[in-house]
């Protein structure tokens, strides 16, 4: 037990845990968004349900999803969308004829 004026030292285990948490990619935030979405090869979501468009990483997870969410429809593996099979084309918004507003909503050029 330490006294009032003595600060407690950090243990090696605690420092190693902090370093690991700070430097390891956990898949969160914007950096992990592409990985989670499955639109690029290597993403977590490999399969997509054709009925509700929910994604799953493997066949077993998709079977569990299908049994829970669509119990009246028989499960058919051939109808599933494989997101890793093909490349997904980027969908960009077409150029609109209306100019985009500048600072504070001004339409001046």
UniProtKB/TrEMBL annotation:
What PANTHER family does its record include?
GEO09665P1-RELATED, ZINC FINGER PROTEIN 706
Location comes to: Cytoplasm; Nucleus
Ranges for region Disordered: 1-45, 62-109
User: Do the record's keywords include Disulfide bond?
Assistant: no
Basic residues: compositionally biased ranges: 1-11
Q: Where is the composition biased (Basic and acidic residues)?
A: 36-45
Where primarily located? cytoplasm
Which keywords does UniProt give here? Cytoplasm, Nucleus
The UniProt entry's GO CC annotations, sorted and at most eight, read:
cytoplasm; nucleus
Keyword Transport among record annotations: no
Q: What is this protein called?
A: Zinc finger (C2H2 type) family protein
Identify the SUPFAM superfamilies for this entry.
Answer: Expressed protein At2g23090/F21P24.15
């Amino acid at each position: 037990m330490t006294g009032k004026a003595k600060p407690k030292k950090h243990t090696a285990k605690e420092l190693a845990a902090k370093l690991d948490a700070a430097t390891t990619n956990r898949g969160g935030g914007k950096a992990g968004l592409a990985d989670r979405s499955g639109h690029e090869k290597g993403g977590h979501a490999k399969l997509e349900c054709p009925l509700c468009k929910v994604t799953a990483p493997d066949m077993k997870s998709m079977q569990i999803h299908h049994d829970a969410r669509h119990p009246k429809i028989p499960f058919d593996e051939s109808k599933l969308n494989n997101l890793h099979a093909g490349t997904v084309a980027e969908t960009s918004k077409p150029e609109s004829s209306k100019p985009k507003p500048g600072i504070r909503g001004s339409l001046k050029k």
